[in-house]
Every structure is written in structure tokens, then in C-alpha cells.
Amino acid sequence: MLKRADVDPFVVVSRGRLAVKPLRDPDGRVTRFADRLCRLVRRLEGKPRSTVEEALRRQERRVRDTARLGGLAGTLLDACRFEPPADVKELPARRTDVFRARGALWPPVPGDTMHPFAIDGAPHALYDTFYADRQAAWPLRAAPSWSGAELLAQYHLELGRAVLRDAERVEIRVRGGWRALFASIKLARLMYRVERVGRRYRLTLTGPAAAFVARRSRYGARFARIVPALSRATAWQLRATVHHSDQPCTFVLRGRARSADTRVGPEPSRARFDSAWERRFARDFRAAREGLTAGWTLARERTPLVADGRVALPDFTLRHTDGREAFVELVGFWTPEYLREKAAMVARVGDVPLVLVVAKSLAVGAGADALTAAAGDRLLWCTKQPRLADVMRVVERIAR
Question: Are residues 62 and 158 in the same domain?
Fold first, then answer.
């Protein structure tokens, strides 16, 4: 994440609203320079991190604004993959052996410099990698394959991400990408609340600057993880209450897939599925005859279901042109414990039009009674694969 020195010079506050000045590029010179930085880092693959950082720092002679260069360089370095050597865990013990062989008062006698390093029979190899476990010595294994425009887009995203370190409260509205977003929230152990507003959902997160957050820097580092996941959504908006100079300000960040302002990298060419069941169901829906799915559209993991402060994310959302909506959850391999969890989820969402498709042949043990009682006519048992026609009959009956 960018340092405050890379962000603070570009923060502007006016009438209670906070904004970050973007890096303008009216004639394309900035993009060409960013291209140069990306190519430079790719040429340095295999070199130590200190070499890469020094090469980026030397680009200061080509720019007037070193703070902007520091931000671009920091964005690039964060995207690079540096890895320690394979024997990194053995280096502290080797150093101890060398220091013991050297002795507290060992004099650097000419011709005797490499003697303590001969403990493993390869003194020069040990000498060259003596402090290879320092992060500055880690070699660059992979650099991002960004263009200059993609680097600028990621830099602008990182500017907004750094501002959120001082956020007290953040509201997020998003279309699509819920699975990645909730996965990042749970992984970062953030405090949140979800509520439905019409057809959309509003997600409220507790920010690092909240009064009751004890370790703000640590929580802030975890909090910043949500932005990369958020930027992969189809469309999103983030509205935060940020403390700047001890004054509360409103900060708004928004983006859309394939947007040059926030999106980095291409849109996925096809949806990723968690199982062959999901993949086949989506394929059958696309290939179905018009009468079976007329007016319906299928989206994967588009709409979360919220009940009692807990969130469930059905596998598919079906929407009709007349405004009706239904959800489909596919349950393949299951255990009694897993089935009880699904039953509890169905009970929490109440009368939400959710179709639960469960495979009888992939059961482990018993435990279907609780699910049958909770789901009722929304439960559809199948033998091997879910039949689209059977699912659509239930959808047509319960959708609203």
C-alpha cells in the first residue's frame, strides 16, 4: 500500500468532501513514461529488490514530481513478486557458524578473508548469499505484465485505497462480484453489516478510524484488502466518512468493469464455476429452447441473501423481464452437517424464492429431514444431474 508521503500532497478537501487529484495525462506523455517503468521492471526479473528499487529511484531525473514517481514506483513494487532463496531458513545457522569460526577478535589478515566461509566447502557461494534472507536481497521472480495505462489505473486505485486508512465508516454498493468481496472481508476479519435496499444491497464496514478500533494500523492494513476485490465487480461505489485534519469528510470512490479509471486487467472471458454441476447448469440454460427460459436471464452469484445479519450467496440469480426474481442453490456432495447448515440458511431467509437442488446419489449419511422441513416445496431432489426443466418449473411457481 502507498505511503502517506505518496498520497497526502494530492488530497484536496472542499466543503466537507475529500478528493484525490488524479494524475492527468492530456498529451499521453505520462502513459509513455509509465510504459517505460513497466518495461524497466520486467527487464530486472531475477535481480534483488534493492536493485529494482534503485532503478526506479533513478528515474527521478526524468520527472518533476517525485511524489508522483514514488507512488507509481510503490504501486509497481507492490505488484511484483519477490521470493527468498530456497535455503533461507538455513542462513541464520550458517551465519552463526561463520561468526564462531571467525572468533570475536579474528583479524582480517590478507589472504584469510574467505577462511571462515569455507565451512561447507563452497566459501564464495556462502559469501555471496550471506544476507540473502533480507527482503532487500530477495530476487524479483515475476513482474506485472501491465501497460502504462494499466499502471496508471492501478495507481489511481491505490490512491483511494490509501485514503481509506483514515476511514471511520464505509458504505459499499456493488453489482456482481459479491463472492470475492465477502471472501476478502472474512479473510481480513472486518466488522460489517448488510441490509437490503430495494433490489440492491448496502454493505457497511467499520473503518480503521472508528473510535473503538484498538490497533488502527493493523486493522487498516487488513481493511485495504477489500479494494482489489471490489474493483473486480461489474459496477461499484464506495462512500466513506474519513477523518482529515481532525475533521470528518466524505470520500467517494466508484468504478465499473473495463473502466480505464479503476479497472486493471481484462474482464474474465468466462465465469468461473466451483463445480461441474454449476458449469453444466449454466451451459444447459444457455442452450435451452426459447420456451423453457423465455424472458429469463441467468447470472452467477449476483445477489446475496441477508437475514439476521448473516449473508448467503446463492449459486445463481434468475431474473425475468417482468421483474420477477428467483435464486438457485446447487448442493452436490453433502454430509449431514452440511445439510443442517443449508437448512438453517433456508430457514433464515424465510419466504425468499430460493430453489434448493440436492443430489440424492452424493449423500454421506442421513440428515435430509431438517432440510425438507425448512425448504418445503422449494426443495428439488435429483439423482445424478439437475434437469433444467425441473428447476424452471419450480422457479416459475415461486418466483416473485
Answer: yes
